[in-house]
Give the backbone structure.
Amino acid sequence: MAALRICTPTGPGEPKRSNLASSPVQLGPDFIGFSSSLLPVGVGYVGDHRRVGSAVVTCRGFFADNVRRKRRPRASLKNSSVCSLGGHGSRESTLCVSVPSETSRYREVPSILGQKIAQGIDGNPRASKEKEVKLWRRLPGVKKFGRHRASKHGLVKDRHGRKSVVKDDDANAVLSCITPESSIEECNSALIHLEKHSDEKALNFFDWMKANGKLKGNADAYHLALQAIAWKEDWNMAELLLHEMVADSECALDARAFNGLIYVCAKRKLDDWGTKWFRMMLDREVQPNVSTVGMLMGLYQKTGNLSEAEFTFAKMRNCKIKCVNAYSAMITLYARLGLFAKSEDAIVLMNNDGVVPNMENWLVRLNVYCQQGKTEEAELVMQSMVDEGFTLNVVAYNTLITGYGKSTNLQKAKKVFDSLGSAGLAPDETTYRSMVEGFGRADKYEEAISYYRRLKSAGFRPNASNFYTMINLLARHDDSKGAYEVLEDMRTAGCQCSSIVTVLVRAYGTAGRMHKVLPILKACLYKKILFDATSCSILVTAFVQKSLLEEALLILREKKWKDSAFEENLYHMLICSCKEAGSYNDAVRIYNQMPKSGTHPNLRICCTMIDVFSMMERFADAETIYHELKASSCVLDLIAYSVIVRMYIKAERLEDACSVLAEMEKQKEIVPDKYLFLDMLRTYQKCGLLEKLSDTYYWILKSQVECDEAMYNCIINCCGQAIPVDELSRIFDEMIQQGHLTNTVTLNVLLDIYGKAGLFTRAEKVFLMARKQGLVDIITYNTIIAAYAKSGNFRSMNYFIQRMQDAGFPVSLEAYNCMLDAYGKAGQLEEFAAVLQKMKRAKCKFDHYTYNIMLNIYGRRGWIEDVANVLAELQSRGVEPDLYSYNTLIKAYGIARMPEDAVKLMQEMRIKGISPDRVTYTNLIAALQRNENFLEAVKWSLWMKQTGVVGSGARA
């Protein structure tokens, strides 16, 4: 019966694991998570990374507790006994187990030592007896199998699956000894040799074995093939091979078949695939072992996959598997995420499950309590470690120091630090770093800088956290000399200039001493900063944000780097920062210092400055920049047009805004956004451009701009008079269906439009909606009263006047005017007079509109005396007739056959500077014609044409 001996591949391996009590480790002060390359791993976690769970296994070495491992000749277990593997050896110790024959698959291992090794690797639980558990401690010769240097000859894989060429091993020589008559053991031995050298050759030979019937019941060959496929990450092929292993070769699936796949996933941090293989194991009712759980939990700890870690952990406990590393991984994962309560629950579960902690697990427990500042619990953990026979190492002391630092119990931290010497340990860099962090967190300036300097004098280098802590401490205590020292240390440590500047400005900015930054930098790093664009931008931006404009402008003048694109972006960012802070004058100063190009100005900067000058109401300066843009080669885009239009709107130059919009519309590729559409609607409405409003509305529909509440309200408010009533109703219904809220102005506009269109049913629905939403105001009542008054519906008019009073609103002058006009035009003079009496009793102050209504009604009747009385009253109140008044009077004199007085009114208008409109001329010509003064009427008609009066005129 041949013995299959699998040597661990050589190549760049894991860092040497040394005694933590005597060698420093590279762990930060927070100590969250433990590297397997630095901390001891107990027996039973995993064997060789290439031979996990197989019948023939390589072991990386065994140890107990925290005993330093010494170099020993490599040993193997051949036929259940430990033996040497030769002088040259590989760098890993090797466990060789005899391959069972076809007739006897399993054989009892007589040696207790062999039993322990086998159990530790294949995942079987250790014996419960204390003597057996501490077997390794009693065997001085088996403290650790030594690692030797890799052979200089021999083709092998490293731990990442990469091949290296070796000269003295010839795969062809191996294959030459294999014939179709060779035994399964001989074929497996050749497959092992080939798999060490080349995955491709191993898989080709595996196919040869399949073709020659060597795979029937040969699970070991399938395990090797699965490992080779795993390193190639051909997962589909691996799945097919698992199916073939059961269906064609009648091999039973066990954990070993999946462990090789999971191991590769764990090494390469492929948690998705690792999870898939584990779920497949469970679906096929394959029992996982300690190696399976340990590798998966290590993988999830690396990738931070908490959900899958919790699932695997729960399955482990259900299967009664006791993997100490799984508990450690679970505790560490929770601690990293700040879920310390769950970390403590995992510790309780571990105790209840009877799992014996190893050194790594004790340190993980210690870390959980120290991270929370629970020093009493941490001290109990330390005591338990000592009681269990573990030797406290420097990592344990460092962790406890961190815990005292977090709880600001610095006296105890100092006491632990001083006790290292008596424990036979020397402080390492983590120890000093933890002391610096603890005293820095407590704002103990003298102690922190003392330990910081002791750290350097001991030959260690501060880490980034130490630098950050010290700079913040120095900033708070205003120690510029200390800052020079730390900055120089950061530079010596290789920190980038930009990182140094970032830490410095944050610390001094928080301490309110930003003005000290430039003197500090001038003493050490200033020249280097001037040549670094990133550092300059960080520094200048910080100065501008702290309103230290002089320092910022100085650096911008003295900088030595040349990058026009970066420089423009920096200036733009600074100007925007000043704009957002409301420091418009600072923005102007930065803009004035910026180098400018007359032919290629920066469009973004120019737009920002137009906006800044508009906010400052310096519209002339803003317009100057606009003209410079037009004269340059810049092509204005959507943002530029939006800013320029808004500038003219703020300057109340709506015609110029319309002109800019007309230029924009010529560029067919520009489609306005929501905000520009809103500006367009408001501008056109103020200018009374109904046609443009209609065009803009349909442009909005065509461009499919998403309409929000503001857009719907603006469309209704601005376009109500420009689009058909049915379309307006459709927009309003769509707005309500989408759940948008209307405002009072929108509802009043709808009331006015529906009222003028005679759609009183819709108008009343809108009014009821306004009442329900509490949006009714006095304008709402005035609008609906005016609508009914104009239509001659006096009953509804009076009804809403009463509702207006019931709602607590006094009858407004506008409502009285509507009533006067309605009754007067309807010839109901008694009601007309009654309304006038009500107005006088209510002491309403008549306005121009009131007097014009009276003049119009009396004039239509030809009551010149009443017209004269109204004029007299109008003048007695110091109010001069307006254009509408004159138009009404001219019409009244025409009706009263007083054309000469009508002509005199025209002359009076010229004297007072009131320009006649088309209605004025029309009324005058009608008055002359009515009194048969046709020649005079023709003269005025020709004069009207010569003056070019084409306006629609005022109401008559």
